[in-house]
What we know:
By secondary structure, this protein is mainly alpha-helical.
Amino acid sequence: MAAKTGFAKYIIVITTVTAAIMELLDTTIVNVALNQMAGSLGSTIEDVAWVITSYAIANVIIIPMTGFLGEYFGRKTYYLTSMVLFGVASYFCGASDGLWELVFWRFIQGIGGGALLSTSQAILFDAFDPKDRGIASGLFGMGIVLGPTLGPALGGYILETYNWSQIFYVNIPICALATVLTLIYIDRKEGEGERKQEIKIDYIGILLLIIGIGALQFVLEKGESEDWFESRMIVTVSLMAAVGIIGFVWHELHTEHPVVNLGIFKYRIFAFSTMFNLVSGLGLFTSAFVYPVLVQRVNGFTPLEAGISLVAPTMAAVILFPIIGKRMGAGASPIPFMIAGICFFVFFGFYSGTATPDMGKWDFFPMQICRTIGISLLQLPLINQAVAGLKPKEYPAGIALSNMIRQLGGAFGIALANNFATNRAAQHRSDLMANMSTDNPLFNERVANATKNMIASTGDTFNAAAMAYKQLEVAVARQAYYLAYLDTFRLISIFFICLLPFVFLLRTKKLSPEEAAAMAKAAAESH
């Protein structure tokens, strides 16, 4: 497909980047609505969490298959079908009257949304000349960062203004417009979708992928709420994940027509880039998860305030990504960008570990700017490195696997953050309770003052002391979780510190402008 020019190019940029943002935004927009959903559907928070889990499971199952499905059905046909499926499922999500009906349609929405990520990236690259594809990488990388970060802000606004069903309905006009623009402005490649008779479907590989990756995602999403391996269900599903993944890897490496080309892991650059994608996904999704929980639980922010406080610093990505993309397109080495990005993210984690309970929205701005700069500097080189050293026909598999690893990194990070924060909160509570003793004069003084305040405010002299103790217990719990979340930010930094020494394993020989252009052209033609 020839590169586009003028108005058509900008329409394709808007369509594909918006589709990617919409898909990733739906991974986090629901997080702030769980309480309202639980009340409306008559369910517990634990059960409503399946609304998030089902979408994530569908995503990680379908993403590695997008290269195969695009080749089998034709990329444009598959993209259009996925867009329509996402929009239709969004409508039925909003119209659902019961929890399990909603969970089912969220799974279908995740199946449609999974294609929007990798296929949008491929179409966007095709719209640019080889010399400008660094800019295309920058624009797509911007969508990767904006999606998960803007989700809580948009979700908070919708909840305060309307109700939870509008979280899903907002997708429908965007899908409809993107579908029309795709029909008009995105061309089919020559011979697209005409090789069905030649392509053998790897049914065993697809089944093992669904079992292995689906079960793994389930364990990561539900492990904390089910008390991990104390639960027979988690043990059973973990065994399913192990059998499925091991069986999938063995089968894909030994079958003649694999649904996912795992042979590309033989390339050193790609193999190590997946490790970076895993940690990058962990940092991106976990930081976007922990921060809103901290400021709502400790600093007293509303969901809307928590979301809005993320918007302004995230806008820095809108400026940074095209600039970095242009530099990458001009042949700049990715290594300095990645080192700087990791350092910014390490600084962000330790800086966030100094937050205080009385900080306001703008007090968090410098910390979040560091996060945005770190992700911007790291994410874009990773998008390029995902295909560095691969053969042109292997690029779709490389892009799809990289996107899946990033999503799994996010799921692993959120599960880890939940478990770590809970354990650290219990430890901090134990440490704080050690000071709450009648042998401690400062504690006795605080209880006496709290009791006087209770009597003054309620007039209840009989229950004032009990209410004072209850108030202190709530304060201890709040302080324990506050300290636990600060520890979690520091833990994220430690992951990035461990990653730093491996940066130089991603070093590749410097390409001439002609070689870089030829490689970019081959990449685009392979999508």
